[in-house]
Amino acid sequence: MSVLEKVRPARPAPAATRERRRVTDEHGRRVRIGELALRYLLLTAVLALTVGPFLWQLSTSLKGPTEDIYSSPPTFLPSHPTLHNYQRVADTIPVWDYALNSLKVATANVVTNCVGSALAGYALARLRYRGRRAATFAFVLAMLVPVEGIVIAQFTTMRELGLNNTLIGVVLPGSIGAMNVLLMRNAFRNLPYEIEEAAYVDGANVWQRFLRVALPSVKGTLAVVAIFAFMGAWDDFLWPLIVLSDPSRFTLTIGLNYLHGTFANDERLVAAGTVIAVAPLIALFACLQRYFFRGVGEGAVKG
Amino acid sequence: MRRQLPTSPWLFAAPGLLIAGAFVLYPFVSTLVNSFTDRRTLVPGGFVGLDNFRELLHDDMFWTGLRNSTLYILGVVPALVILPLLLALLVQKNIPGITFFRSAFYTPVVASIVVVGLIWVWLLDERGLVNSLLETVGIGRVGFLSDQWLLLLSAMAVTVWKGLGYYMIIYLAALANVPRELHEAAAVDGAGPVRRFLTVTVPAVRSTMVLVAALSSVAAFKVFSEVYLMAGPSGGPAGEDTTLVMLVQRTGTGLTGRVGYASALSVVVFAVTVALMLLVLRADRREET
Question: Quick check: B7 contacting A, CB < 8 Å?
């Protein structure tokens, strides 16, 4: 069950009482107005603290060249909003190419992780063969190794393969995350055996059982793997920083760092760059947040 | 009835095993091996025994990195164990619009660390928003990013800010499992909210707190991006804000990278990480018995 659903009404809260609608909690009890006001006050304060910095960044990116962005007291709304800074970022660094590189890397990461971890997870959860325990152990071990400790060796491995400074080199090390494999394994393990047995009796081979029976039943976990894979690749910094040296192949995060280092004196530009980098993710998350919270809860509870 | 091909289970697992083997397990082993060599990026290098580790002991930068990474744990972990729990309590109750707040509080987790780092560099700039506000209320401007210690403290604050939503979700799942009867019983006995929090909620989510402590301390020790972005590649004034992973990145990469020495540094990172996990898990077991 999802985290959100768990805290949502277990039994349906009465929609309306005799007198007027009352705000009720998850157990159908009335929430006192004073407490409610305090809660919203605190929620708003935290909201300002967590989302405010993003809005300030957005505001800075929309301020024109004649506006004082350093004023004290600060002015929150741009007096003459303009998209000019976005144009200037594109003139300064090939930001759309970088975004395209990030998109390629993130999309590839989603595909490889979904396919690879579903296959491997199924093999670990449902198939019987010698060496299964050893294979599971290998994934557990791989999950425990901290990436920060092996980046240098990953880099030399990439060099030996002739793949450093390529987008393939950026994707490969995380292309089938051990953590995702184990997540999928848990999802498959929680499926009742009966449904597959029926397919087996009907003569379905292992690929048919995997594709037609098992996989459709773990869509929720697969969605989480996909979202994690996308965000992970889109947001990654350390590994692309190490493996990429040619500016034409930069991903957006590396490009932003470069923009910041080179043009630190114009905050409007850097702000516009960060908005370009973060907007797609926030949009994606806003669309998928329901699946996301549900799936995270699934993994946490069942895992 | 068709039989499955004898090779097919391995076909399923092969891609995953190949990637994990080639890009995680093999690099892990080669990090261990390289730490005993003087390998450089373009030079194969030979066996030098414990020389790298001996050199570490005399390397001021190593001690600076170890100090900062350790300070990071001390600064970040208590905040990340407590604040997200309070936040989870705040968003737990199902009042109108709460789903919006939960998602909004998660935004910093979704945003990439580079974006977060650059946002805060701008906010904490000498002329940035925080300083404008401080000046407006009459406190005056503070050099958050120019003072060695304030810089480290600011980076910690950013790490906490970005992690709040993530650990909030973990606590929400744990809080959902706290039996409501316990709270009611305590309320009947006359315990106020604070008292109930300490005597009912905290013991009930204690194992989650340990988990959060373990996750956040391991992550804090390996901190890279926040400090790299806020202090710059060379680690702030005189490199005093360098962390261990920054040092690994700096010494091990580039054409003149000292792969052997960076590997020895990595081995230290592994060792401390594993030790931290064991420490936290042990503390958990001892308190349970």
Answer: no
